Amino acid sequence: MALSADDVRRLALLARLELSDDEVNAMGPQISKILGFVEQLSELDTEDIDPMTTALDVDNRWRDDDIQPGLTNDQALQNAPARDDDCFLVPPVLGTAGAKN
Asked: What percent of the chain has a predicted confidence (pLDDT) above 70?
C-alpha cells in the first residue's frame, strides 16, 4: 500500500508531528511497510486464541488489598501551611468564587 505525501502529512498531523518535505518523502515508504505488516497480521486466524494483556507469562505480584488504618484529620492537617478547621486552604486557581469577569 503506497501512501501519498498528503496521507503522510495527515498522519503526521494526527500524531502532532511537524515533518519537513524530506521527512515526508522518507517516512512514506516506512509507514507503508508498517501498514503492510499490520495488514499481514490481520490475516491470522485468532479464533481459538485467548485475549492477553502481556506477551509475558507473569503472575500478579501485587500485595493483598487489606484495609489499613489511615491518618486522622488532625494528623493529615498537622503540617499544612494553611488550614480552616478541618480543611486545607489553598490559593484560588481560577479566581475567587464571587469574582465576575
From this structure: 92
The pTM score is 0.47
Contacts of 31 (CB under 8 A, 6+ apart): 3, 8, 11
Cell of 66: 487489606
Q: What angle do CA 58, 60, 63 make, to 5 degrees?
A: 150
Query: Cell match 488532625: residue?
Result: 74
Gap between the Cα atoms of 71 and 50, Å rounded: 43
Report the CATH fold assignment for 5-42. Histone, subunit A (1.10.20)
Tell me the pLDDT tens digit for each residue of 54-82.
888 777 778 888 899 999 999 999 999 99
